[in-house]
Amino acid sequence: MSTDEKLTKPYNPKDTEPRIYDLWEKSGYFSPNRLGRENAEPYTIIMPPPNANGSLHAGHAVFVTIEDLIIRYQRMRGKRALWLPGADHAGFETQVVYEKKLEKEGRTRFGMDRDELYKEILTFTLSNKEFMENQLRQLGASCDWSREKFTLDPKVIDIVYDTFEQLYKDGLAYRGSRSINWCTKHQTSLSELETMSVDREDPLYYMKFGPFTLATVRPETKFGDTALAVNPTDERYKEWVGKEIEFEGLIGTIKLRVIADDYVDKTFGTGVVKITPAHDPNDFAVAQRHNLAVVEVIDQFGKLNEKCGKYAGLKVEEARKIVAEDMKKVGMLVKVDEKYKHAVKVCYKCERTLEPRVLPQWFVRMKPLAEAVIPLVEDETIKFYPDHYKKIMLHWLRNIEDWNVSRQIVWGIPIPVWYRDDEIIVSKDSPVGEDWIKETDTFDTWFSSGQWPFATLGYPDEPDYKNFYPTQVMETAGEIIFFWVARMIMFGKYRTGKLPFKDVYLHGIVTARDGKKMSKSKGNVISPIELSDKYGTDALRMGLIIGNTPGTTTALYEEKIRAYKLFANKLWNVSRYVSDNTEETIAKPRLTEEDEALIKELNGVIHSTTKNLDNYRFYIAAEELYHYVWHNFADIIIEQSKSKLKSEDKVIIESKNYTLRYILMTCLRLLHPFMPFITEEIWQTINYNPSILMVEEWPKA
RNA sequence: GCACCUUUAGCUCAGUUGGUUAGAGCGCGCCGUUCACAUCGGCGAGGUCUGAGGUUCGAACCCUCAAAGGUGCACCA
After folding, report:
1. Nucleic chain B: which protein residues 633-672 of A have CB below 7 A from it?
2. Looking at domain A188-355, which of 3.90.740.10, 3.30.390.50, 3.30.565.10, 3.10.290.10 is its CATH number?
3. pLDDT, averaged across chain A
4. Cβ of A217 < 7 Å from strand B?
5. What is the pTM of this model?
6. At A654, phi and psi to the nearest 5?
7. How far apart are CA A176 and CA A522, in angstroms?
8. Which ipTM score applies to this complex?
9. What is the largest CA-CA distance in chain A?
C-alpha cells in the first residue's frame, strides 16, 4: 500500500488508538526487560494505584498523561524505563462506595456476615479493576502490565505485615486506649487526616455545678464528667483544688473532684471546665495526667447509654436540647450564649460530627519516623516540584502525631494480631496453642499504600527491588501529600534505609471550567474518557498538559480539548503534505543555506524541549512544540517549500526534500511523549521500514 | 489564629535565572481560500500585568504593606 493511500483523510483517533495500543503492548516494550538495555540506567515511576471502585476521573487522566509523558521521554532517552501500574483496594473509600450501593438496593452492611460482605466487595472491586485497567489503556498508558500489583496481593500483604511486626518490635506500633475520632454513620474510627474541621455556631450553656458555674456546648455529656478543672494560677478557685464537691444533678447526686491543670484557660467562660474524658480528646489528656476515671455515656451510634438514666436512648442532638431544658427547670442553667462560634470535627466523607470515643486501637508512633527524614527534606535530597511543598511537608513532619491505623471495617488488610487474656502476639501466622482471638480490625488503607514503592518492587530480595529501587519520581495529586507522599517517604526510609524517590511532582486538582471542584452533586463532572472518545486521547492529553502548572488547579473543559483535536488534524495534514511531496532518502544531500538555517532553528526547539522536560516543565514544552509545528513548520516552512519543490535546480529540490522529511521525523519524535497515538500512526505509515516510534531515539540537537 | 497558593486580554491560562514594542488557545471583527487541512490562511481590535510604596540603569518577575479569592493546619470547655 502506498503512503498516499494510507494517509487518507481525515485522521480518525477512534479507529487508530486501540490498534496502536495493541501494537505497543504486543511489542513487549512496556517492559524494561524487553528493551535490550541491560546496562542502561534505570528510570522508574510507580503509578499511584487508582481506587478500583469506579471510573477514572479527570485527576486520573492528569496523572496518566504526565507520567506516561515522562516515561516515554525517558524510554526514548535510552533508559531502562519502568512504569509500574497498580490498583488500590482503597479500604474505607471503597467500603463507603459499596455501602451506598447496598443502600440503593435496600440493604445494609450491618448484620451482614463479615466474610460474605468481604467477598461481595472483592467481586465488585475486581470487576472495577479490570474496567479501570482498560481505561488506562485508552489513555495510552505505556506501563508494564506484567508487573501490575494490587494492594491485596499476598506478597504485598506479607511485606505490610513484616513492616508492622518490625514497628512493633521497635516499639513504634502499640495498642492503646486513646481518644479517637469515631464516625457514627460509618462505624469506624478515622485518622486525623480523615477528619475535617468545620466552623459552627452553637449555643454555649452556662451551668451551675454546686458552687461553680461553667460553660459547655455539650451539656449532654455531663453524665460522663469525672472531674472539674481550673487553672492552677487562678486565685478565684484556689481553695477548691483537691477538694470534692457534691450537688444534685438531673439523675441523682454528683460527686466531682476539683483538679488544677494548665490546660484550663482562666479567661474563657468562667475559668472552670467539666472534664468528660470519654467524649473529648482534651479532657482525655487531662484525665491521663490526673488519673481520672473514663466513663462512657455515648454509644457507637451516637446515643446516650444506660448510664444516663431517663435520657438513655436519645441521640446526642436531641439529648442536648432536652438536658438543657431540664436543667433550666431545676435552675441549673444560668444562661445561654446562642451563637457561640467554634469548630467541630466531622467525617470527611459524610460530614457528620465525629464522636470522640476511647477505644483500644493500634497506633504508630510517627515522630521517630519523621525525624529520620526531616533532614533529607531540608537539604533537598528529596526535591519537590513546585518547591513550596517542601515547607508544607516540613511543617507537617515537625508537628506529626501518632497515627491511628485501626479501622473497624472488613474491607482491608486485617491487622495481624492475636490476643489471649493479657497476651498479645503480632504475627502474620496463627500462634500455637488454644484460645487465641484474632484481631478483627483492618489497617487504614494508607498504612499499606505508604509502603507501595518498595512493596511493589518486592523488597528485600526480588531482582526488581535491586534493579529499580529507589525510583526517580513520584508524580501524584497535591491533595494527598500527607496521606500518601509523606508516609511513603517515612516508611521507605524506615524499611529500606533509602528514600523511595528522588523527586516529587505534585499536580493540582482538575476543576470544572468555573474553577470549582468537580462533584457529582454539583453536576459539573467532566469525564476524561468521554473526551477521549470524542476528540481522541492525544487531544485530551495536550489539553491536560498545556496550561497545567504544578501545584495549581487546572480547569478542564471541552473547547480546550477540541482545540487540540484541531492540532492533531494539523499534524496529520502536515504529514500528508510531506508524504505526498517528498521521498525517503538514504544519504543526506548538500543543503541550501536556507535549509541549514531551518535545521539550526529546529535544533533550538530540540534543545529547549529537552531542557524543559528535564525540569518538569511539560506545559512549556508542549506549548512550544504546538507553536513550532503549526505556526512555523506548517505556516512558513511548508508554505515556502511549495515553490522550492517546483524549482529547476536539483540541489534545491533535494535539499528541501531532505529538510522537510527531517523536520517532520524530528517533530514526530519530539511530540511522541505528548501525543503518542497519532505520532506512532504517522511514523508507521510514512516510513518504508517502520520501527516503533515509542522506542526510537530522542532527537539530539 | 497561623501558614501557603492565586490575582496578567471577554473566558481559561502561559510567561524558565528581572532585559528590547507582555504571549497562547478559545471567543470577537475584516479579507481571502477548497491547489496537505470535515477546513485553513492573512490581517486586526482587546491588557495602567489587583492596589500602594520600595530596590534597580531597567520590575508582571525581587522586597514591604494592603485588598480579594482559594487551600491547608490548629483551636478553649
Report:
1. 634-635, 638-639, 642
2. 3.90.740.10
3. 92
4. yes
5. 0.94
6. -65, -40
7. 41
8. 0.92
9. 114
